[in-house]
């Protein structure tokens, strides 16, 4: 395994900033033991992909803050998250393969001048993208389970400091 990650926050002015991340991962098997028993039905080979190890991942999060009357602030934030193809098992079961995907989130926050209260309204997974995040294979082909990320979720958060 080897890889590289980078992250940064670019502050353009008091009202606009962008957070960004990027990651590359090279995960390969150097050698594997011969499969025996049940494992022989779906053997792990040197060509198998590591589970939960996408080659590329990145994110971009622009954030706009608008000063309002009486010292309050309105902040709009948008998130874009990308991941390349990923397998969920060492056996690289095709039923648990997740192709590359994009996830989008967004929120709007209102905060007072003293930063002791805020209200945020937002949505996670705006496009309602369903991706496989885990699962297991069964003892016979076609049997097993797949676990998916949550569907589109709306939320409201109220915060009060004391």
Question: How would you describe what is shown here?
Answer:
The protein is mainly β. 0% of the residues lie in helices and 53% in strands. It has no helices and eleven strands. A seven-stranded antiparallel sheet has the order 1-2-3-4-7-8-11, with no helix packed on it. The chain has a two-stranded antiparallel sheet with strand order 5-6. Strands 9-10 form a two-stranded antiparallel ribbon. Strand 1 (2-11) and strand 2 (16-26) form a beta hairpin. The radius of gyration is 21 Å and the shape is elongated. 5% of the residues are buried. The mean pLDDT is 90.
What keywords describe this structure?
162 residues, mainly beta, seven-stranded antiparallel beta sheet, two-stranded antiparallel ribbon, 0% helix
Oligomer: single chain
**Structural class of the secondary elements?**
mainly beta
Number of strands: 11
Rg is 21 Å
In round numbers, the mean pLDDT is: 90
Poorly predicted tracts of residues = none
Number of helices: 0
Strand content: over 45%
Termini gap: 47 Å
**Global outline:** elongated
The helix/strand series, from N terminus to C terminus, equals EEEEEEEEEEE
Instruction: Report on the biggest sheet.
Output: 7 strands, antiparallel
Strand order of the largest sheet: 1-2-3-4-7-8-11
Percent of residues in helices:
under 10%
Topology:
Blueprint: E1 2-11, E2 16-26, E3 56-67, E4 73-83, E5 86-87, E6 97-98, E7 101-111, E8 117-124, E9 132-137, E10 144-148, E11 153-160
Antiparallel strand pairs: 1-2, 2-3, 3-4, 4-7, 5-6, 7-8, 8-11, 9-10
């Amino acid at each position: 395994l080897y890889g590289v990650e980078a992250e940064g926050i670019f502050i353009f002015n008091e009202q606009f900033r962008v957070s960004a991340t990027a990651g590359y991962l090279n995960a390969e098997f150097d050698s594997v033991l011969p499969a025996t028993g049940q494992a022989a039905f779906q053997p792990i080979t040197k060509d198998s992909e590591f589970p939960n190890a996408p080659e590329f991942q990145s994110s971009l999060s622009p954030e706009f803050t608008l000063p309002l009357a009486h010292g309050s602030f309105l902040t709009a934030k948008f998130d874009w998250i990308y991941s390349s193809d990923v397998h969920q098992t060492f056996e690289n079961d095709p039923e648990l393969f997740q192709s590359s995907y994009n996830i989008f989130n967004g929120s709007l926050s209102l905060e007072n001048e003293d930063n002791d209260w805020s209200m945020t309204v937002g949505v996670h997974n705006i496009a309602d993208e369903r991706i496989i995040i885990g699962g297991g294979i069964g003892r016979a082909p076609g049997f097993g389970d797949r676990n998916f990320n949550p569907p589109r979720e709306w939320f409201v958060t109220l915060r009060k400091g004391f």
